[in-house]
Amino acid sequence: MKLVALAVLVAAIAAPAAFAKTPTLNGVDGPGFTITLKQGKNNVKKLKPGTYIFKIADKSGIHNFHLKGPGVDKKTSVGKTYNVTWKLKLKKGKYTFVCDPHKSIMKGSFTVS
Ligand SMILES: [Cu+2]
Q: Which of 22, 29, 40, 103 could form a disulfide with 35 if both were Cys (CB 3.0 to 4.6 A apart)?
């Protein structure tokens, strides 16, 4: 009994700390002609170098989410709607995210410094 209680206690303490170390960003494309990357409620414009969890919601069969920058080139499929999670290490530099078929209007960027 004591061991179980201890294990539960350790898990409860360790889990939030582990998550806190890796910030989560939310990328969304569609269903309209929009593409966004947010941390909480704010658009991502500047980040510190490090590892981030990208939760991508590709909400349209005619759009995709394509993130590109130093060491990173990740994209979702245009023809599908689905959610995907990427764990990515960001280095200093400029990153852009676009919808490939509509990159002239569906685009955004942020800098890592
Ligand atoms: Cu598009």
A: 29
CA of 20 to the centre of ligand 1 (A): 32
Domain spanning 22-112, CATH class:
mainly beta
* Beta-carbon neighbours within 5 Å of ion ligand 1: 63, 99, 101-102, 106
Query: Ligand 1: distance of its center to the CA of 23 in Å?
Result: 26
pLDDT score for 96:
98
Q: How confident is the model at residue 21 (pLDDT cuts 50, 70, 90)?
A: confident
Q: What is the 3-state secondary structure (H, E, C) of the chain?
A: CHHHHHHHHHHHHHHHHHHHCCCEEEEEECCCCCEEEEECCEECCEECCEEEEEEEEECCCCCCCEEEECCEEEECCCCCCEEEEEEEEECCEEEEEECHHHCCCCEEEEEEC
**What are the boundaries of each domain within the chain?**
22-112
Compute, in angstroms, the gap from residue 32 CA to the centroid of ligand 1: 8
Greater pLDDT, 3 or 88? 88
